[in-house]
Write a structure and sequence with these properties.
By secondary structure, the chain is mostly helical. Among the domains are: about 70 residues, Tetratricopeptide repeat domain (Serine Threonine Protein Phosphatase 5, Tetratricopeptide repeat); about 100 residues, no CATH class. It is built from 18 helices and no strands. The protein is elongated and about 175 Å long. The chain starts with a helix and ends with a helix. The relative contact order is 0.03.
């Protein structure tokens, strides 16, 4: 009885407590809820992204660009495939077509007059051997002619050159030597023609350029001489002869300012080139730059006291400035050094017309011996005055 009562109470207590769900099921239901929330959120963002893409014009343009590129590539591939198929068909057709019959070749005509046997295998060697002999003979003729020309035997040199040109008519060095001989003989036109022929064959021959420029200058073709000298300076900027030809041609054309840079270059290349210094001084005289002219002539006189041109141009520079006493003093010193007659010839120059009627100049002319009839010879007095001037 008590046992039944105890069972009944346990059953009532069990029915009063609500049943509990297992934890695994609860966790699964929770995660499923979160998943549904995430899924719904992801779908919402995806719809917004798609709608924004549809609204973005740049996206549409990029999409259209990629479609266009893809279409071009497809068209190109299609054209390539068609060309490959056509080439295969063409090759197959040509392979299937029968080959044309070879044209009949007429036998080579045999020259009835040519009965010589075929050349031996060493014919080329024999021909080269003969050519070598010719080359050596031409070289020997050049060597002999060059030596004869250097020693002044122009006629013998000309004979050697002529013999060499008969062996090797196109030998450039022999042609150049022939031109040099024509120069020595003052046959400038012939020399010019030969030098131009040499330069036709060998434009880089600087010696031929210099010789041609020299010939052009002798023929008074100053513009051509300037052009040729400029070509020389392109290859050799420090060529003294080219600068000299250029300066002289410009001076002869009256282009004094253009000549001065070349004269200065000559002096910088050779500090002892008193000829270039005198030319530079005369260029300054032409420009009436008396200070630079005087400095240049004085430099020449200090460097080379026996240079009569320097003394003469110093006197001219003074006369140009109407400095009579200074001009007479310079010429008196020169008379002691070079002689009265030598200096008397200077006084005939038009350069002294500005001071010719000056009493001091007339007296000096008397000292030099340029006296009217009936006057005593003033040579000794001139020497004494010149000697006195030379000691001051």
């Amino acid at each position: 009885m008590e046992e039944d009562i105890y069972r009944h109470q346990r059953a009532r207590r069990a029915s009063a407590i609500p049943p509990r769900q297992p934890p695994e099921r609860s966790a699964r239901s929770h995660s499923a809820g979160n998943g549904e929330k995430r899924h719904s959120s992801h779908g919402h963002h995806e719809r917004r992204r798609r709608s924004s893409r549809r609204r973005d014009p740049g996206f549409a343009v990029n999409k259209l660009l990629w479609f266009s590129i893809a279409a071009v590539v497809l068209v190109y591939l299609a054209i390539l495939a068609v060309s490959i198929l056509q080439s295969r068909r063409t090759s197959a057709t040509s392979a299937a077509a029968p080959a044309p019959a070879p044209a009949a070749v007429a036998p080579a005509a045999v020259d009835a007059a040519d009965t010589s046997p075929p050349l031996p295998a060493d014919a080329g060697i024999a021909t080269l051997s003969e050519q070598l002999k010719q080359w050596k003979r031409g070289e020997a003729a050049f060597t002999e002619a060059d030596a004869m020309l250097a020693s002044g035997n122009t006629e013998i040199a000309a004979d050697r050159v002529e013999a060499g040109l008969q062996i090797l008519p196109d030998m450039t060095r022999l042609q150049y030597l022939s031109a040099r001989i024509e120069q020595d003989l003052q046959h400038n036109e012939e020399a010019q023609a030969l030098l131009m022929k040499v330069l036709d064959r060998d434009p880089g021959n600087v010696e031929a350029r210099v010789s041609l420029a020299r010939v052009l200058a002798k023929r008074q073709l100053h513009r051509d001489a300037i052009a040729m000298a400029a070509w020389i300076l392109d290859a050799e900027p420090y060529s003294e002869e080219a600068h000299q030809i250029m300066a002289t041609a410009h001076l002869n054309l009256g282009e004094t300012r253009e000549a001065i840079p070349h004269l200065n270059r000559l002096i910088s290349l050779d500090r002892n080139n008193t000829s270039a210094m005198n030319s530079l001084g005369t260029a300054y005289l032409r420009l009436n730059d008396y200070v630079k002219a005087m400095n240049t002539f004085e430099n020449v006189r200090r460097q080379e006291p026996g240079n009569s041109l320097a003394h003469y141009y110093i006197a001219v520079t003074f006369a140009r400035q109407d400095e009579v006493e200074a001009a007479v003093d310079v010429m008196a010193r020169a008379a002691v050094q070079f002689g009265n007659e030598f200096v008397l010839a200077w006084t005939k120059s038009p350069e002294f017309d500005r001071i010719r009627t000056e009493p001091k100049f007339l007296k000096f002319l008397g000292y030099l011996g340029d006296k009217p009839e009936g006057k005593a010879d003033g040579t000794e007095a001139a020497r004494e005055e010149a000697g006195t001037a030379g000691t001051t």
